[in-house]
Amino acid sequence: MLLKILIIGLLAWMVYNLFRALMIMNKQDPNGPPMSKFIGRRVLTSVIIVLLLLLAILTGVITPNPRPM
């Protein structure tokens, strides 16, 4: 259950950073933070989610659906 909450939180953080980058792209403020900062956070969060899922599958915490015949 804790793993699911952590993944949902990371997904929410990823969407938040996506919309922050969108707002910066629309403002086009030269003095504001760069859009790549938020896009980089989004990519890093995606990598963390994939690694968490792979680690959970390898340790047996979660089991993937069986392969269809």
Strand content: under 5%
**Ends apart, CA distance between termini:** 30 Å
Radius of gyration: 16 Å
DSSP strand count: 0
Biggest sheet record: none
Q: What is the multimeric organization of the chains shown?
A: single chain
How many structural domains in the coordinates? 1
Write down the secondary-structure element order. HH
Query: Portion of residues in helices?
Result: over 70%
Low-confidence regions:
none
Structural class: mainly alpha
How many helices does DSSP assign?
2
InterPro entries: DUF2909
Protein name: DUF2909 domain-containing protein
Organism: Thalassotalea euphylliae
Pfam family, one: DUF2909
What do these coordinates show?
- The protein has about 70 residues and is mainly α.
- It has one domain (about 1-60).
- It has two helices and no strands.
- Helix 1 (about 1-25) packs antiparallel against helix 2.
- It is elongated, with a radius of gyration of 16 Å.
- It starts with a helix and ends in a 10-residue tail after the last helix.
Main features:
69 residues, elongated, DUF2909, 2 helices, mainly alpha, membrane
Short summary:
This protein has 69 residues and is an all-alpha fold. The protein is 74% helix and 0% strand.
Walk me through the topology.
Layout: H1 2-27, H2 35-59
Helix pairs in contact: 1-2
